[in-house]
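INFO  loader      accepted 1 record
INFO  loader      residues=169
INFO  predictor   begin
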Amino acid sequence: MKRAKRWMLIFALLLSVLALFLGGGVVLVRGTPDYYRPAALTREQIEAASQRAEQTLTRIQNLAADAHGAQVRAQSGTTNPSTNASTGNIFSFSEDELNALFRKWADLHGWREYIDRVVNEPIVILKPGRVILAGQSKLQHFDTIVSLHLAPALDKQRRFDVNLLKVLA
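INFO  predictor   done
INFO  writer      dumping tokens
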């Protein structure tokens, strides 16, 4: 009799723990992470942010073209090689600029229809040492926020490297 009571108590505890894990899992899947906050910008603010991002991209392209031209001239002997032209150039993008540019390019290049099949409100989130791509899932019976957590860095050859850290829902 005592043995049966012990087994029933152990079974009841295991069921309780299982119920807590399942309940917690449902809360986590249905919840919204604190980093997922789509910006509420006006159409004019989105357009201005997109233009700022495009201007920064244009500056980057111009710098790359100038550096390539200087390298070609130096190799052909037209001019003496100079110091690295990229020293001291810093380019940055805000979350609003990246999201505005992403929206504009999604419409311009026809990505919108593919993105809309999978997620609503896709956004780019910038955290220290991390870039997060997130959106509301549109998959059936999977009403949650899905996110890709990326760690961009420069490798030993100073090339841009993006590592996928985790995928969350």
